[in-house]
């Protein structure tokens, strides 16, 4: 399944575990099968079964998580002393149609697509697990490794809290993950110390008043105006109540109210997301948002019901683990295959693991080198250069084989 690699670091550290052609082809086929059969969060039964069957064929003993989707699998023997390295993947797809044309592996499920690359993440961790299992049988694995295949990343607050509750971090000393990045060429990765994603929460508001005739707004609560003021003034208030460097931003996605042009409605509904770049401001965001909404709504005599749904904190990369990943990529492909990456405003529930153990997320390049256009994440035409699978597998195998910095 694997062969000795000539990749080496200064000091003559030679790393085994380079991907062979048969396994590379198998992993591409596995990814395409997942891509054709996308499943939403907590519904990933087929995906879970496919991963489980392949790990069992390799002589491993995966355990399905309590909800029936997602699984965990150890490679090597955990002695209760040496900490485990965890490799995490997410299984779920998005509720959008696959609009790609000209590829045989487009989604076969209506209004479902792997438009965020979770099929690639899953395949990378599976492939790394198969290579590391082979190395373990040959006595070449220096530390035990845990594979974590997590459901429901796309559903706030994500499937990570349930996975943690089920014990996937027991004995884990550090955890790593990849996320597809269509702005980075395949064969390359992006690294960053500190925050690499933002926090993301969901906000739902109901405003209410007695309603009335549009000829007499002074006798009632002008609810549409009240809603409009909340939409425009609350984000501006928040921007003046936190350090600008915190990047706290409330953005609305939906507003609904009324049924007739001459009737002041009794209800209005608003929903949006709250995003934040740093952890301390994220912790204070619910109180700040509640206060700002109440101030504006009270001024316009509207009553409020606020549902602030905690989503995910920022993913904050541990510097030591980030440098371990840098060393691993350097060993495989050289320092030129690494680039600095910026902090994304997207949310990722990998952050919940980092509340418990140090870890880091890598941006995995999936753009075909020289491609003039970028097919962004969460679009129906999103696709990847499948050479990224080998890059991800060998990055993770090298991470497991290198001594900690």
Secondary-structure map:
Blueprint: E1 2-9, E2 13-19, H1 21-36, H2 45-57, E3 63-64, E4 71-75, E5 84-90, H3 118-137, E6 145-150, H4 160-165, E7 172-185, E8 189-191, E9 194-195, E10 199-208, E11 212-213, H5 223-239, E12 249-257, E13 263-264, E14 267-276, H6 279-299, E15 303-312, E16 316-317, H7 319-333, E17 338-340, H8 351-354, E18 359-367, H9 387-401
Parallel strand pairs: 5-6, 5-7, 7-18, 8-17
Antiparallel strand pairs: 1-2, 3-4, 4-6, 8-18, 9-16, 10-14, 10-15, 11-13, 12-14
Helix pairs in contact: 1-3, 3-9, 5-6, 7-9
Instruction: Give the CATH level 1 class of the largest domain.
Output: Alpha Beta
Strand percent estimate: 25-35%
Mean of pLDDT: 93
Radius of gyration: 24 Å
Q: What class, by secondary structure content? A: alpha+beta
Unreliable runs: 1-13
Please summarize the sheet with the most strands. 8 strands, mixed
Through-space gap between termini? 28 Å
**Count of individual domains:** 2
- CATH homologous superfamily title of the largest domain: Zn peptidases
Report the principal-axis shape: elongated
Task: State the share of residues found in helices, binned by percent.
Answer: 25-40%
Gross CATH architecture of the largest domain: 3-Layer(aba) Sandwich
Record field, number of beta strands: 18
Write down the secondary-structure element order.
Answer: EEHHEEEHEHEEEEEHEEEHEEHEHEH
Q: What is the strand arrangement across the widest sheet?
A: 3-4-6-5-7-18-8-17
CATH topology of the largest domain: Aminopeptidase
Q: DSSP helix count?
A: 9
């Amino acid at each position: 399944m694997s062969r000795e690699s000539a990749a080496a670091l200064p000091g003559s550290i030679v790393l085994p575990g380079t991907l062979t052609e048969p396994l590379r082809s198998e992993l591409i086929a596995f990814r395409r099968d997942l891509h054709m059969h996308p499943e939403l969060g907590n519904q990933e039964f087929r995906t879970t079964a496919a991963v489980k069957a392949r790990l069992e064929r390799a002589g491993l003993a995966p355990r399905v998580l309590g909800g029936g989707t997602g699984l965990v699998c150890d490679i090597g023997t955990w002695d209760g002393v040496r900490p485990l390295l965890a490799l995490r993947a997410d299984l779920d797809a998005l509720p959008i149609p696959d609009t790609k044309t000209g590829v045989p592996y487009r989604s076969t499920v209506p209004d479902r697509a792997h438009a965020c690359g979770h099929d690639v993440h899953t395949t990378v961790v599976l492939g790394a697990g198969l290579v590391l299992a082979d190395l373990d049988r040959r006595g070449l694995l220096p530390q035990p490794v845990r594979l974590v295949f997590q459901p429901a990343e796309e559903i706030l607050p994500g499937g990570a809290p349930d996975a943690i509750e089920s014990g996937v971090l027991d004995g884990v000393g550090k955890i790593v993950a990849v996320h597809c990045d269509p702005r980075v060429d395949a064969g390359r990765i992006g690294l960053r110390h500190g925050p690499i994603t933002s926090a993301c929460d969901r906000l739902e508001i109901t405003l209410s008043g007695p309603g009335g005739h549009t000829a007499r707004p002074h006798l009632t609560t002008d609810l549409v105006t009240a809603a409009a003021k909340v939409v425009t003034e609350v984000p501006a208030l928040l921007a003046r109540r936190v350090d600008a460097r915190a990047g706290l931003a409330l953005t609305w996605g939906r507003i609904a109210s009324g049924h007739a042009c001459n009737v002041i409605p009794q209800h209005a509904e608003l929903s949006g997301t709250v995003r934040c770049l740093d952890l301390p401001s994220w912790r204070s965001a619910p109180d700040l948002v509640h206060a700002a909404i109440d101030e504006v709504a009270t001024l316009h005599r509207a009553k409020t019901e606020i549902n602030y749904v905690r989503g995910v904190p920022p993913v904050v990369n541990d510097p030591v683990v980030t440098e371990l990943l840098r060393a691993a990529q350097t060993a495989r492909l050289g320092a030129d295959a690494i680039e600095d990456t910026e902090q994304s405003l997207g949310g990722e529930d990998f952050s919940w693991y980092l509340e418990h153990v140090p870890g880091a997320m890598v941006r995995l390049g999936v753009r075909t080198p020289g491609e003039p256009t970028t097919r962004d994440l969460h679009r129906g035409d999103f696709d990847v250069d499948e050479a990224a699978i080998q890059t991800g597998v060998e990055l993770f195998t090298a991470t497991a084989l290198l001594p900690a910095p």
